[in-house]
Write a structure and sequence with these properties.
mainly alpha, 119 residues
C-alpha cells in the first residue's frame, strides 16, 4: 500500500510542477515536455533521479522525466557494453518498447476516432 501512496505523491508532484510551469510562465506544453525529458536525463547523470525512482516507483518512471531517466540509464549501459557508440544506441534500445507502443497506439486511435485539428 505504501508504494502506491509514494507513486501517487511523486507522480502528482511532477504533474503539479508541469501545470505550474504552463500556468505561471509562457512555456507551451511542448516546451515543458522537452524540459521534463531533459531534466530527467540531467538528474539521472547527477545521480539525483535514482533515489526518486526508488522512493516513488512508477510515479517517477512513468511521467516524462522517467523517459529521460530511461534514456540516460540506457546510454550509460550502452557505453559500458559498446564504448562511445553505446552512448548513441543505448538510450534508443532502452526506450524502444515504449516508443513502439506510443506509435502503435497513436496510429490505432487515429484509425478508430478520425482525428481533427483544432481551429
Amino acid at each position: 500500500m505504501e508504494s502506491y501512496v509514494n507513486a501517487f505523491i511523486i507522480g502528482g508532484l511532477i504533474c503539479v510542477i508541469g501545470q505550474l510551469l504552463m500556468d505561471g510562465t509562457k512555456l507551451t506544453p511542448s516546451h515543458v515536455l522537452v524540459l521534463f525529458v531533459t531534466s530527467g536525463v540531467i538528474l539521472t547523470a547527477l545521480g539525483l533521479y535514482e533515489p526518486l525512482v526508488k522512493f516513488g516507483g512508477s510515479g517517477a518512471t512513468i511521467p516524462l522525466p522517467g523517459f529521460g531517466y530511461a534514456l540516460a540509464k540506457g546510454a550509460f549501459k550502452g557505453v559500458k557494453e559498446s564504448g562511445l557508440i553505446g552512448a548513441f544506441t543505448g538510450g534508443v534500445q532502452a526506450t524502444s518498447g515504449g516508443i513502439t507502443a506510443a506509435i502503435a497506439f497513436g496510429y490505432l486511435m487515429a484509425i478508430i476516432f478520425s482525428p481533427k485539428t483544432k481551429p
